[in-house]
Design brief:
mainly alpha, elongated
Length: about 120
């Protein structure tokens, strides 16, 4: 025997004050958009600069070009691996904690390559 259950159709008004979504881009959206564009373009620019600078780096560091090409490839792979890791860490730790932690590790990480005088010892 089939019982008919009472059902009710509820119309949800999507234009209520609490759920109103604006289709306008605010100034904050513009900043986020430009940050995303820069985040996409800067690794490409870094890789291009590294590709152009490889012969000069090989001469100044007394290293073979093949070794420096591995450095460029490693940088590109590290940048590609960082995207999913950062997404996971943001969900796990929160954006603020990840930003502060990254800000603490960035200066020493930028100083280490400066201290390098030769690549092939």
């Amino acid at each position: 025997m089939i019982k008919k259950l009472p059902c009710e159709i509820v119309m949800i008004d999507k234009e209520t004050d609490s759920t109103r979504m604006s289709s306008k881009l605010t100034r904050e959206h513009g900043f986020v958009l430009w940050a995303l564009i820069a985040g996409i373009c800067l690794p490409l620019l870094d890789t291009t600069i590294m590709g152009v600078a490889i012969p000069e780096l090989a001469a100044s560091l007394n290293a073979p070009i093949s070794l420096l090409q591995w450095v460029s490839t490693s940088y590109t792979l590290a940048a590609a691996c960082a995207v999913p890791i950062c997404a996971w860490a943001t969900r796990r730790l929160g954006g603020r904690a990840l930003w502060v932690g990254g800000s603490c590790f960035l200066p020493p990480g930028r100083l280490l390559p400066v201290c390098q005088t030769a690549l092939a010892n």
